[in-house]
Amino acid sequence: MTKQKKEIFEVFFRRKPAMILVALKKNLRNRYGSVLAKEVDCTYSHTVKILQEMEKAGLVGFEKQGRIKVIQLTDTGNKIADHIGRIKDLL
Predict the structure, then answer these.
(1) Is the dihedral of CA 35, 39, 45, 46 positive or negative?
(2) What is the CATH code for 3-90?
(3) Whole-model pTM above 0.90?
């Protein structure tokens, strides 16, 4: 993505939340907060805060597997991530 395209994308979307949704959509394997934070270049605590807001909005869900919470997109979150990915590609 060129610098100009990247800047216009960030005009329409907050970068970190949008990229978290897109990253969750790309990888279908189990997702953990710490791995996701590294992928989108964000602190773990900020990532968790964003994910909690997304959970309230019904975009993601958490499933506890032992001591680890696995993050999964809901149907709505999946659709939104799809649209954000397409918009990113168009810009």
Answers:
(1) negative
(2) 1.10.10.10
(3) no
